[in-house]
């Protein structure tokens, strides 16, 4: 009864004083489960690498569209950022297209996130086929369409019957999405988002000029380095109906290259996570939050349609830039750290204000991208999760079944494992006692006979 009352009145957003032992155990267990997924991912990475290398070669040699010959992968090698936690085999690949000097103009009603991208001067280069009538503005729809056409041709020429299929085009997505289904292994499913990207080397636009707020966390020098890097644009239009012509052809600014760097070198001290002795739990906290977001989306797909993992990642960076010391994120602080992160996210939803980490004037929780009704639903859902100690995290995620048995043996579930040992011991004792009784009875019987 007492524990029931406590779990119902469980604190306020971000309150870490009343983390129950059950909640602490569940958070740690869930985070261990998520770590095991990495084992599965290696073969997926291999398959995706092979696909992307072949695609690059195809594009470089292609006869029908010279503009796409000069492409490169923005994040090369085997390190891809995993977007979704419950589906570890989803990959994002940004293909960088080489463009001449560009001029950016911000679409005002979108507070620094969406831009019209123009060539500084007219050109006879290959890019001319992807311009609007003014012969300078780069058309996001034309680039997307061509990327789609080329990938379709590539798959039918080189990967036909090998399990890869192209998903239909989505008007709001910048990506060409390929799905892979292994006929021999039903569980072996993965998807790859291929996103054409423009590089703008001449400095960040005004809205992001001051850079991310990382002075206390990663340092001023690091911020200056980030701001001196190129910035990227992907062919993505804003959400909403009755868009103006400019908005239909707009490009969305992307900082994913910087985000990746911040994820990799995330410590206040440079040595964080370099060895076992200075491991931290930052990444695991983000994984848990992403897992929670996905779980909620699966449960309420319609109501929470505007919610995505980027909201979680943004909250994560804000918390990191405020809670800077590495010792606060030591593995022993896992539950406290997660509750702090979750609390921040819940408070942002309550206030209806989650600022973009790089473009401070843009609120990711503002309509039309995030309608008020969806935000109210999210606020209630988060409160309920906190009060009931995160039932959505207790549901085993679909791919948990993919984890091989050997891993389960290496990391046995402490609760179930012990329970089953105790249970079998009990039943063994039971049988043993009955045997003794029978032997004694037979013995007594013999004496009397
Ligand atoms: Zn670390």
Automatic annotation (TrEMBL):
Alphabetical UniProt keywords: Membrane, Transmembrane, Transmembrane helix
Mab-21-like nucleotidyltransferase domain boundaries: 79-264
Organism superkingdom: Eukaryota
TM segment ranges: 431-448
GO molecular function, one term: 2',3'-cyclic GMP-AMP synthase activity
A cellular-component GO term for this protein: cytosol
UniProt name for this protein: Cyclic GMP-AMP synthase-like protein
Organism (species): Ctenopharyngodon idella
């Amino acid at each position: 009864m007492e524990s029931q009352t406590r779990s119902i009145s469980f604190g306020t957003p971000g309150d870490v004083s009343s983390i129950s032992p059950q909640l602490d155990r569940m958070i740690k267990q869930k985070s261990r489960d998520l770590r095991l997924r990495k084992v599965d991912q290696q073969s997926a990475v291999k398959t995706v690498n092979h696909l992307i290398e072949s695609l690059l070669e195809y594009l470089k040699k292609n006869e029908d569209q010279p503009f796409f010959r000069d492409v490169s992968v923005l994040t090369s090698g085997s390190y891809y950022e995993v977007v979704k936690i419950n589906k570890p085999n989803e990959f994002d690949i940004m293909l960088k297209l080489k463009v001449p000097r560009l001029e950016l103009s911000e679409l005002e009603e979108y507070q620094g996130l969406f831009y019209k991208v123009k060539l500084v001067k007219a050109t006879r280069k290959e890019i001319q086929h992807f311009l609007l009538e003014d012969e300078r503005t780069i058309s996001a729809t034309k680039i997307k369409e061509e990327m789609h056409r080329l990938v379709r041709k590539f798959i039918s020429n080189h990967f036909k019957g090998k399990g890869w299929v192209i998903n239909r085009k989505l008007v709001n997505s910048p990506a060409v999405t390929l799905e892979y289904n292994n006929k021999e292994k039903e569980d072996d499913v993965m998807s790859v988002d291929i996103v054409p990207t423009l590089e703008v080397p001449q400095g960040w636009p005004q809205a992001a000029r001051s850079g991310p707020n990382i002075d206390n966390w990663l340092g001023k020098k690091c911020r200056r380095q980030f701001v001196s890097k190129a910035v990227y644009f992907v062919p993505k239009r804003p959400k909403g109906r009755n868009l103006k012509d400019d908005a239909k052809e707009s490009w969305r600014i992307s900082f994913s290259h910087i985000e990746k760097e911040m994820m990799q070198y995330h410590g206040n001290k440079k040595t964080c996570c370099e060895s076992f002795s200075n491991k931290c739990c930052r990444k695991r906290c983000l994984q848990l939050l992403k897992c929670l977001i996905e779980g909620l989306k699966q449960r309420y797909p319609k109501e929470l349609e505007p919610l995505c993992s980027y909201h979680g990642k943004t909250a994560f960076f804000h918390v990191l830039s405020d809670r800077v010391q590495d010792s606060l994120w030591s593995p022993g602080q896992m539950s406290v750290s997660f509750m702090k992160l979750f609390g921040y996210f819940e408070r942002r939803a309550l206030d209806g204000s989650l600022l973009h980490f790089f473009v401070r004037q843009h609120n990711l929780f503002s309509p039309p991208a995030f309608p008020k009704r969806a935000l109210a639903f999210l606020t209630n859902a988060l409160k309920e999760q906190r009060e009931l100690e995160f039932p959505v995290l207790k549901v085993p995620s679909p791919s948990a079944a993919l984890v091989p048995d050997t891993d389960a043996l290496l990391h046995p579930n402490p609760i179930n494992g012990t329970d089953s040992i105790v249970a079998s011991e009990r039943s063994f004792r039971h049988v043993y006692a009955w045997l003794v009784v029978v032997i004694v009875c037979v013995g007594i019987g013999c004496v009397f006979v």
